[in-house]
Specification:
Layout lengths: L1 E5 L3 H13 L3 E5 L2 H10 L4 E4 L2 E2 L2 E2 H11 L5 E5 L4 H10 L3 E4 L4 H15 L16 E4 L4 E4 L2 E2 L4 H12 L4 E3 H8 L8 H17 L7 E4 L3 E4 L6 H7 L6 H19 L2
Parallel strand pairs: 1-2, 1-3, 3-6, 6-7
Antiparallel strand pairs: 4-5, 8-9, 9-10, 11-13, 12-13
Amino acid sequence: MLVLVTEDDEEYAEVIAEILRRESHEVVIAGSVNGALRFVEQKTPDLAVLDVMLPDGSGHDVARELRRRQPELPILFLSSLDRASDRIAAFDAGADDYVGKPFHPSEFVARVRALARRSAGELPVRRPQGVAVYGLVFDESNGAAYLDGTNLGCTPLEFDVLRELAAVPGQVLSHSYLNDRVWGYASMTDGTLLKGHISAIRRKMRDAGATEDMVRTVHGVGYSLVPREPDDEAAAVESPTALGAGSAAEAADADAAPRRRASGS
């Protein structure tokens, strides 16, 4: 497997490369955004390992360009920026996974292996067979999810997370279950990985017109896909007890008439 490592610290880059070579991967190191983009113009990597802070820009820029060129490419960020907001920003840029520095080599290798299995199609998935669920439709041929006909533009992992939730609408799926189904291992202790993808999915659903979160958090348990509440205005129009402006005025006048007769006015 050809791995693109984008890291401006030469010593750190060599450490990462050596770990990957021991796993029998071919490694190309780029120390900048421009270097990474020049490489992908020449060759197609099978996996990308990106740092965030680079001398001529951000690893986010590399991730967006890679995602544009290769929508299915596994992308892993390896960065010392380890706040939840940093991870979410990386997921929004197209990351599939995120490991903070300093990292343990065995964890890094495990995550690379999981991404490689996903890329090779070795992880089993349940498929809703294109059935619409709460306005969502999944196109397996191109890995696209649509909400009311609008393409959400999901990354491959976002697509799989949303598809897992849609396979059992209304049911709560635990963090460990989703980790196992999507990443291939349930013993992940880093909750921000899944949380980052959920956050990106919610944002994309709102951009597609959802006025509320359809992916609900069940604190301490996991997540559930729920239907949208009917629009308040539409519900008022459809309600058999709802009155239009003219009907309301007529009703008020009819109610007042007996009182006027009783008072002799």
